[in-house]
Specification:
The protein is of the alpha/beta class and 321 residues long. The chain is 40% helix and 15% strand. α1 links the parallel β1 and β2. α6 crosses α8. It binds guanosine-5'-diphosphate-beta-L-fucopyranose. The site of guanosine-5'-diphosphate-beta-L-fucopyranose has 25 residues, from α3, α6 and β7.
Length: 321
């Protein structure tokens, strides 16, 4: 089923999760579209509560929704807090998708994740690989929730004719990421560690795992651009992968981060920490056929993310706190 392109002009667009890294990037991107961006003030609505979510949507009546609200975190957060990752994500997406149907929302874009594919899916991973094998154990709870969200969008399209689509991003990084070492993803963690090691003159910094896993890293402003593009041009059941089509080893990534930060010490690998999936490279053939390609080179994206870190996280006075 392919419907006419969706025009954003003059629409009310709710960015659910606008305080997060993805949501804030979508808001930046929508500033150049002629639409009204709707966001929920902090504390105004808990999306894990069905009545609150339905009330919010009934009163705000958006035409379109970017569903970027989610419980997210890096490998350790996923591995150690499985209940939060499955409950919060199932609750948020179930409430928003059903409330969007009830409120007659015209278009909804749901964000999945590349970790929904089987741990040993053949690379690069095509959208058809979904549900063809066992998941990566460190993030299976999050993956199960995200798979349920994708299936829910398909079901609502099939039964109710809702124009709800799903998108599968690669590993993301960029401004407004979480730099907390225990719960963050690898890029912000390595930036914070390399900066700290440089500032304190440490002889080495710690990198989790073996350094051998490969990750495809997508700059979040590129993702936001792809999401706006897909919201406008795509209307069908299958999810769409969004990535760069290239990946690096964690060791190569750590080397690049150290160069961007200007840290010249050694890297020490901590084998007590998990590697997670050996590789998660997305096949971006469908995305390219729909007319979109990533623009930001890894090195440039890392430099911009480090600038954000310097200005907002490691600002004078907060160092070492
Ligand atoms: O980014 P990350 O936490 O998530 O870790 P995943 C990627 C790789 O970097 C793993 C290694 O092999 C980590 O062991 N790594 C090295 C580090 N040093 C560090 C460090 O200091 N911090 C962190 N966090 N990693 C997540 C999933 O998996 O990816 C989520 O758990 C989600 O569900 C997300 O899908 C995109 O790529 O392993």
């Amino acid at each position: 089923m392919t419907e006419a392109p969706f025009a954003l002009e003059g629409r009310r667009v709710w960015v659910a999760g606008h305080n997060g890294m993805v949501g804030s990037a979508i808001c930046r991107r929508l500033a150049s579209e002629n639409c009204a961006v709707v966001t929920a003030p902090r504390g105004a609505v808990d999306l894990r509560r069905q009545a609150e979510t339905e009330g919010w949507l009934a009163s705000e009546r958006p035409d379109a929704i970017f569903l970027a609200a989610a419980r997210v975190g890096g490998i350790q957060a996923n591995d150690t807090r499985p209940a939060e990752f499955i409950y919060d994500n199932l609750a948020i997406q179930t409430n928003v998708i059903e409330a969007a149907r009830a409120a007659g929302v015209r278009k909804l874009l749901f964000l999945g994740s590349s970790c929904i594919y089987p741990r040993l899916a053949s690379q690069p991973m095509r959208e058809e690989a979904l549900l063809t094998g066992p998941l990566e154990p460190t993030n299976e709870w999050y993956a199960i929730a995200k798979i349920a969200g994708i299936e829910m969008c398909r079901a609502y399209r099939r039964q109710y004719g809702c124009d709800f689509i799903s998108v599968m991003p690669a590993n993301l990084y960029g401004p407004h990421d979480n730099f907390d070492l225990e719960s963050s993803h690898v890029v912000p963690a390595l930036i914070a560690k390399a900066h700290r090691a440089k500032e304190t003159g440490a002889p080495d910094m710690t990198v989790w795992g073996s350094g051998r896993p490969r990750r495809e890293l997508l700059y979040v402003d590129d993702l936001a651009d792809a999401l706006v593009h897909l919201l406008k041009v795509y209307s069908d059941e299958p999810p769409i992968n969004v990535g760069t089509g290239e990946d690096v080893t964690i060791d190569e990534l750590a080397r690049s981060v150290c160069e961007v930060v200007g840290y010249r010490g050694a890297r020490r690998y901590d084998a007590s920490k998990p590697d997670g999936a050996p590789r998660k490279l997305l096949d971006v053939g469908r995305l390219e056929a729909l007319g979109w390609r990533a623009k930001t080179a890894l090195r440039d994206g890392l430099a911009r993310t480090y600038d954000f870190y310097l200005e907002n996280v490691a600002a004078p006075g907060t160092e070492g706190s």
